[in-house]
Predict the structure.
Amino acid sequence: MSLYPALVRAFAEGHARPVPDLLSDAAFAQGDRATPAAVLIAITDVPADPQVILTQRPRAMRDHPGQVAFPGGKREPGEDAVAAALREAEEELALPPAAVQVIGTSDDYHTGTGFLVTPVVGLVPPGLPLVPHPREVEAWFEAPLRVLLDPTRWTSHEVFWRGAQRRYLELEWQGFRIWGVTAAIIANLSKRIAWEALADAR
């Protein structure tokens, strides 16, 4: 049995209704323009306990060193969000684009550093032989979708940043700290897809 039908249905139903309180850092962005980017939310096709593939950025990186992220990055000229997310996932993890069943694009997230990030949700087979690119990925891991979509598992914090209080979410999973943009994108997705909506596949 595949998670695909239930995930497609839950995704469509969740994105057919307005959600007024989606998280955004647009208020903290400097300047009027945002650079288009995309990330891949790769969910493993294991109906009983699907996982989400996440990466940890190298600690020596100039931007966001050591942070947990989805595979992804800036869109190239002429590239849509799906193409960018699949390309970046292949570059970062050797994840074959042909292995991804694209479900759809979710809500754009405006970062405080000037990016407009489009999450692309896709289903992938379990056990892919992923190979992290050493310059882009220090480590990769999987976290259960049921945990990520559960608002009670997240801790809310506030910090004073760029002249105002900024709220952010945080979750520790097996030694990895998930927070910032990645956490906000997950929180927004949890308002579109409830774990209970995938019950038919389990």
